[in-house]
Amino acid sequence: MTNFEFYHFFDKENNCLNFFKKYYQRVLHKCPKCGHEKLKWSKKIIGWRCCKCSKKISLKSISFMRDSNKLFMDWLEILHLVCHSKKSVSINEIFRKSRQTRYETVYHMVQKIRVEMGKINSIDAINSYTEFMFLEMNRKVFMNLPLSIRMTFWKSPTRTRDKVRLVVPVFLHEAILNTKVQLLEKNNYPYKKLLFVNHEIVFNKKATQLSEEIINLKWRSHLRNNVMKLLKGIYHYTTGLHLQGVLDEYSFKYNYRNTKWCKLRMFMNLEIKCIRQNNGDSG
Ligand SMILES: [Zn+2]
To answer: How far apart are the CA of 67 and the centre of ligand 1, in A?
Structure first.
């Protein structure tokens, strides 16, 4: 979807709301309180109401946009700007292109979208892994770079549909969580809201590390060089705090680089697939 098409189709809040509603109603089968299967859409609460116990289920609360007071239109625009470009663009650039007036707001929204991308990457890319090391030289240029990054992946027979997820090492993940706790305790830290964005990492204990002979080394170093370029070129200021988010957006775009689908719809379809899988729901 081009920018022109996007702003043409989604110029009203109601269109954007309906776009999201169409996807999320696929995973809402029954009332979470009483289990009744008949739910009725209510414009007033922008959500569903259970026909038996009257429980309200707002659209936002069952989506990745929960706990946000931004319009669906704002969310869809940021989602479009993130997904639209083939390569990652900086949050600053997304901010400049968007209707938003505060950089922090856009930063927060992009992080939330990246968290979802991380979950989507984890659907397939979890069975095998390899590590790639960064050279000492690279680390001098980019101070927050860890020694190595783990690449979990699933290799497709034709190689065109390989799925990867790049993850920060376990020790760094733990260090990041500690830093967050420390920042939360500081009274004057201005971006507390951002600390609640949690880039989830599930370390699959059953994953097998593939030996150097099996891995296509050229492929691995190609990916490593791309990550280096990305971090040096766009994310000059990436602190370890949101490095996982950067890696997840990169992995997501890599995984779906060959798709002809509209990226927005593809993201939403994968998001729904992810929720279904987490709910153990096959329909
Ligand atoms: Zn109910």
So the answer is: 22
CA 109–ligand 1 middle distance (angstroms) = 31
What is the rounded distance in angstroms from the CA atom of residue 179 to the CA atom of residue 177? 5
Confidence of residue 224 (pLDDT cuts 50, 70, 90): confident
Q: Can you spell out the DSSP letters for 124-148?
A: HTTSEEEEEE--HHHHHHSTT--SE
Q: What is the spatial distance between Cα 171 and Cα 167, in angstroms, rounded to a whole number?
A: 11
Which residues are within 8 A (CB) of 219 and not within 5 positions of it... i.e. 6 or more apart?
Answer: none
For the chain, domain boundaries: 113-256
Q: Are 253 and 247 in contact (CB under 8 A)?
A: no
pLDDT in tens, 13-23: 999 999 999 99
Residue 190 CB coordination number (10 Å): 8
pLDDT in tens, 97-140: 999 999 999 999 999 999 999 999 988 877 788 888 877 766 66
